[in-house]
């Protein structure tokens, strides 16, 4: 019996690049590396204009616990340290490195992993700058070190990848299953967890079969086949689906004894611990109105324009570029913005594929309520936000919304419900 959750939406035939193997992206001519690619405190630059840097070299760090260092993804010369457009819609201090074409890296340390202690493993993960690669970008070393009073006993690996069009995680799991399993055991050693579940949607039969075979004699890690439905990969939804535990309003997974990690993050942990590689690249699905959609292993900081050119360029006149998935991704101001740690996909839309419809009045049909996986009333929260009644929006549990977009997708009046809810959430947080 496939495991699933109540409500949500389903998409058909939206995994166009699932059979496209990961391709190594071209070495970029320059990279723009924001000093904040994580939830938490922005890093301070460790380099200055004119410095020559090598691949893997740390170029930004912070003394704050909730932060993650950033590293040079190419070798070359630091040409600028200035404010640049960030994929999240703001401007952030960034380090620009002009490639010298050599791609020289620092020598990487050889480790006896079996002898490493819990604290040593955490330090390696922190120094590698690993964050959640599913898009949330919370520093992984913090997530793997919950307060002592929080007894975490269950690890869930998120292999759902429920957003339409995105197939990067699918390919990472298929092509790097051994690395992911090794990374899981690193996490289990750090946390003391004895029980792990890998949640994979049924539309990835090849991945399910592969992991079941490789884990045949590993009784501590179990594959859970999930029904293909959006937003199955949302953290709280995944926990409820697999364990039956419901994270309370305002609570965190660790309150329920659960830790969730994205499969790409686990692969990055393997790279850091076994290969001594910091996080300088990630797999990104590049698709939509381009000539050659594919899954690319891209250096962090590569401008979108260079990635799209490698995919054969735009197909028609581009109207919108979304970083992430079509449901939760963010439309970009320019194709000069860089790929960052949290970039899961690049989706291009042209005049033929974009569907612009004007907003009209709410007809009280209740479709937004019927699909909301958090059992909220999106139309009421949106209306209170529109009227600037943020205290009332808080009462309607606006903060429990994780902005999956199911409500806006289902709305026949095309009301931008998520945008209204985002405004309400920001105001509630701002004013306590």
Can I get a quick summary?
The chain has 432 residues and is α/β, with parallel strands linked by helices. The protein has 13 helices and 17 strands.
The low-confidence parts are: none
Shape estimate: globular
Supply the CATH class of the domain at 113-275.
Answer: Alpha Beta
Strand order of the largest sheet: 1-14-13-17-15-16
Q: Helices and strands, in N-to-C order?
A: EEEEEEEEHHEHHEHEHEHEEHEEEHHHHH
Can you characterise this structure?
The chain is α/β, with parallel strands linked by helices and 432 residues long. Among the domains are: 113-275, Rossmann fold, CATH 3.40.50; 367-430, no CATH class. The protein has 13 helices and 17 strands. It has helices at residues 118-127, 140-143, 168-175, 177-191, 205-214, 235-243, 263-275, 304-310, 367-371, 378-386, 390-395, 406-410, 417-430, and strands at residues 23-24, 30-34, 44-45, 52-53, 58-61, 70-71, 76-85, 91-99, 154-159, 195-201, 221-226, 258-262, 281-288, 294-299, 318-323, 330-331, 345-350. Helix 1 packs across helix 4, helix 4 packs across helix 7 (263-275) and helix 10 packs across helix 13. The mean pLDDT is 96.
